[in-house]
Design goal:
- The chain is 14% helix and 40% strand.
- The protein is mainly β and 486 residues long.
- Helix 1 packs across helix 4.
Length: 486
């Protein structure tokens, strides 16, 4: 028979657990979508993520020692001026996560035996790209390919991948736009996570292949768009400053040859890339943006004219998702732009395989309301591109991963998804294990009016086996080249 003291104890336990849950959902959802304890295993919460949560709640500044002293001032501006919770409340939040987190995550292992890619696959070494490739861009008019490297080199290649010119830039380039007789190129400053204003935007005169700075003091910028937002025949720059603890998504309006006005759309880190299109059909181009690094969202900025924008959060993801890239395409042929999204950034504080990493399609209901329609688990997915590669009237997908399961399925760092009547069928190629792929570009390399793929390698050791990393370095592969054979 249960005693009265037992029931009092039961009620007390329930009250404590409810309070812990309430605290966690209140404070851990104040800056981003609430991260469910089941998203990570107990050890990862305890040893990696919870100490960072405590730091960001203003309870422990000891982790500052892990960052360069030049970053400290910027980091402190991103932290609360006083602790968000008491030490007792923090212990209760911590107890909630550790009590409800699983001992381990159930990790799917996709067995892909299909090698029927519609491509002839090869690898290429590019002299001057030994430090890794940070961007691939092409000029379809002049038939040139531009390769950016981790050492700050920008290489100009022919479509036959022959070197024609190069220039040493102040820092590694991350994004490039071809405009008339010059290149607009975005420089990261420092590649590794940081909050220093070392990035810049510059231009390269193609006649002399010389560089000049346009904008400076940017925080690790990673994506550039040049577009006319006001239908006034004057282009502006949209720059994604990824940063680390701080960053921004901004529009830069030119006043004269030396001065730009910065219109900030989001004063937060993690701006990854944008797509510009008139989404509400009011004849003004809008901005669709992916924000990562904490509060992970896809936001539609409706253009109201005169550099005013109305933000609408279309999709929101937990902070451990690792949002990495997005594109738009009409997947169901209903005349509306759908979203192709990847999440798999695995370089922060929870460097474990995650079952929710992968490639997703979100369908548009016609009013810019999006619902997930398809998901394929892909460890460390970093980029996906939509295109009808086999020219059968539907959209296929090419995807890469920077953090695949290197020990069990490294060849799944590139997966091709053919759109078939029975769904998307994945296919791989063993040559994908020739490098660690960071960037991808679609282009018609051999002039046969079919879209080919170039994938660039950044052969970092993180997560790879020593033997695999040594193989990458010794073979020094720069590109995975996929020539469409349909």
């Amino acid at each position: 028979m249960f005693t009265a003291s037992f029931f009092l104890l039961l009620v007390s336990c329930q009250t404590r657990e409810e309070k812990e849950e309430h605290l966690a959902k209140t404070y851990c959802a104040s800056c981003h979508l609430f991260p469910d304890p089941e998203l990570l295993d107990k050890a990862t919460w305890e040893q990696q993520v919870l100490p960072q949560m405590k730091f960001r709640m203003g309870l422990d500044y000891f982790p500052l020692r892990d960052f360069h002293q030049y970053d400290h001032k910027a980091i402190l501006t991103a932290l609360p001026k006083q602790a968000m919770v008491t030490q007792e409340e923090w212990e209760q939040i911590k107890n909630y996560y550790l009590a409800h987190a699983p001992d381990s995550l159930l990790i799917p292992e996709n067995k892909i035996t299909n090698h029927a890619l519609p491509f002839t696959v090869s690898v290429a070494k590019i002299a001057g790209a030994e430090s890794g490739i940070t961007l691939i861009e092409c000029d379809t008019l002049s038939q040139k390919i531009y390769i950016g490297t981790g050492s700050g080199n920008l290489l100009q290649l022919s479509y036959e991948l022959k070197a024609e010119a190069s220039i040493q830039l102040p820092s590694p380039p991350s994004s490039l736009v071809v405009e008339q007789n010059e290149l607009k190129v975005l420089l990261m400053g420092i590649m590794d996570p940081n909050d220093q204003t070392q990035g810049e935007l510059g231009k390269i005169d193609l006649a002399g292949f010389k560089y000049a700075s346009i904008l400076d003091s940017l925080k690790r910028p990673v994506h550039l768009t040049s577009v006319d937002l006001n239908n006034d025949q004057r282009k502006v720059f949209i720059i994604s400053e990824f940063g680390n603890f701080t960053g921004a998504l901004s529009v830069f309006q030119q006043h004269d040859s030396l001065h730009y006005h910065k219109h900030i759309l989001q004063y937060l880190p993690g701006a990854r890339n944008v797509v510009v299109k008139d989404f509400n059909k009011d004849k003004r181009p809008d901005i669709l943006a992916l924000m990562t690094q904490g509060d992970e969202r896809i936001i539609l900025f409706l253009n109201k004219g005169n550099f005013t924008f109305e933000p609408h959060v279309l999709l929101r993801f937990p902070p451990v998702y690792g949002s990495s890239y997005f594109e738009i395409a009409d997947f169901n042929n209903d005349g509306h732009s759908d979203i192709l999204y990847t999440n798999g950034d695995n370089a922060d504080y929870s460097t474990i395989l995650k079952p929710y990493h992968g490639v997703r399609i979100f369908l548009n209901n016609g009013n810019n309301k999006f619902t997930e329609d398809w998901f394929y688990p892909m460890h460390g997915a970093s980029q996906a591109m939509p295109y009808d590669f086999d020219e059968d009237g539907d959209i296929d997908i090419a995807a890469i991963s920077f953090f695949p399961n290197f020990y069990k399925s490294p060849e799944q760092s590139f997966i091709y998804f053919e759109n078939t009547p029975s769904g998307y069928v994945p296919a791989i190629n063993p040559m994908a294990n020739s490098g660690r792929w960071l960037v991808m570009k679609l282009m018609d390399i051999n002039h046969d009016h079919k879209m080919d793929i170039l994938v660039g390698a950044m052969n970092a050791p993180t997560g790879a086996s020593p033997a695999q990393y040594n193989k990458w370095i010794s073979e020094n592969t720069s590109l995975l080249v996929l020539i469409n054979k349909n």
